[in-house]
Amino acid sequence: MSTSLVSDMAGIIRRHLPHDGMMPTAIPGLALARSSTPTVMNAVVYDPCMCVIVQGAKEVIFAGETLRYDSAQWLLVSVAVPVAARVVEATTDQPCLMVHITLDPAMIGEWLTDGAIPPSGPPSRGLAITPSDASLFQAITRFVGLLDTPADIGPLAPLIRREMIYRILTGPQGARLRQMAATGGIAQRITAAVRWLKEHLALPLHVEALARQSQMSPSAFHLHFKEITGLSPLQYQKRLRLQEARRLMVSDGLDAASAAYRVGYESPSQFSREYRRCFGVPPRQDVAALLRSDLVTG
User: Fold this and answer.
1) Residue 172 burial (CB count, 10 A)
2) Signal peptide: which range, if any (predicted)?
3) Which of 47, 73, 94, 267 is the S-S candidate for 69 at Cβ 3.0 to 4.6 Å?
4) What phi and psi values does residue 262 have, to the nearest 5 degrees?
5) Domain span at residue 164?
6) Same domain, yes or no, for 237 and 279?
7) How many Å from the N-terminal Cα to the C-terminal Cα in the chain?
8) Residues 166, 224: one domain?
9) Number of neighbours of residue 123 by Cβ within 10 angstroms
10) Stretches in the chain below the pLDDT threshold 70
11) What is the pLDDT of residue 3?
């Protein structure tokens, strides 16, 4: 990747995010993140997005595999997946600078409808890291650069976003992205099941019913779900529940027992055991540390 492109992007992020943290911007679907120090491993759920590191480096653990990426690679997430992530390279003088762009299935579908993009292949897992492409990085730089000219955001942001989608669809990760909008495909049915789990996380999970809803046998549903998300349906629901309980305790001030019941746990002791297994410390200790740091990002 060209040094000047990376430098330009870093300058834009520094201007609009002069402190550590993650911040949404005036451009819909665009967030910037900055960290001046390495961070501890944090369990999070990534929604469909692309993440670009302009400076520094991160590690992501997905499906038991540790993936590292920096400005030479970018991360694509095509379906909501639970991961563990941390910043591994960052200093005060050279903070880790990141760009997070949500992906719009409708825009992907428009390209597929146009017939200019080949159809999707067999389903693949919902997260991948690939080497950066100059054409895509240039488009991302222009997209983020609109923050310097707010009057241009309305007219130009949709056009550049459409170009970025095209660059991804015609690149190495095109098949993975096409899964998001392939009507009736296995990946889209698993995506619908993931969405159901997120919207009904406090309800008991009946895999057979969810499989029927996805028009698959229970065994096929379990296989494809784990292939794409890296977890079984039950493991996935558990991770979603723990993440939401964590958010309720940090943002809404709920105690552990109340948060546990809110997300579907009937036993506070089981909740505490599983919370500690996921986040490494008991709920009260974890929440206290998060409130002290005032920073909960992936």
Assistant:
1) 12
2) none
3) 73
4) -60, -35
5) 3-178
6) yes
7) 24
8) no
9) 22
10) 1, 114-123, 181-184, 293-298
11) 80
Query: What string of DSSP letters covers 157-208?
Result: HHHHHHHHHHHHHTSTTHHHHHTTT-TT-HHHHHHHHHHHHHHTTTSPP-HH
C-alpha span between 94 and 96 (Å, rounded): 7
Q: Would residue 194 be called left, alpha or beta, if left means φ above 0 and alpha means ψ between -120 and 50 degrees?
A: alpha
151: Cα separation from own chain's centroid: 29
The last residue of a domain, from among 119, 143, 178: 178
Rounded-to-integer distance, Cα 162 and Cα 114, Å? 13
Residues 6 or more apart whose Cβ sits within 8 Å of residue 85:
41, 42, 44, 46, 58, 59, 60, 61, 298
Is 246 found in the same domain as 137?
A: no
* DSSP per position, 66-130: EEEE-TTEEEEE-S-EEEEEEEEE--SSS-EEEEEEE--HHHHHHHHHHT-SPPP-S---SEEEE
Q: Could you tell me if 191 and 285 lie in one domain?
A: yes
Question: How far is Cα 110 from Cα 126, in angstroms, rounded to an integer?
Answer: 21
CA distance 86 to 91: 14
Do residues 242 and 279 make contact, with C-beta atoms less than 8 angstroms apart? yes
On whether the CB atoms of residues 145 and 11 are closer than 8 A, the answer is no
Based on the domain organization, do 10 and 77 belong to the same domain? yes
Per-residue pLDDT tens digits for 205-220: 999 999 999 999 999 9
Domain final residue, candidates 143, 178, 213: 178
Closest CA to 220 of 196, 247, 246, 190: 190
Tokens 């919207």 correspond to 199
Q: How many domains does the chain have?
A: 2
Beta pairing, strands 127-131 & 57-62: unpaired
pTM comes to 0.83
CA distance 95 to 36: 4
Paired tokens of 114: 């146009």
Per-residue model confidence (pLDDT) at position 290: 83
Looking at residue 275, which CATH number applies to its domain?
A: 1.10.10.60
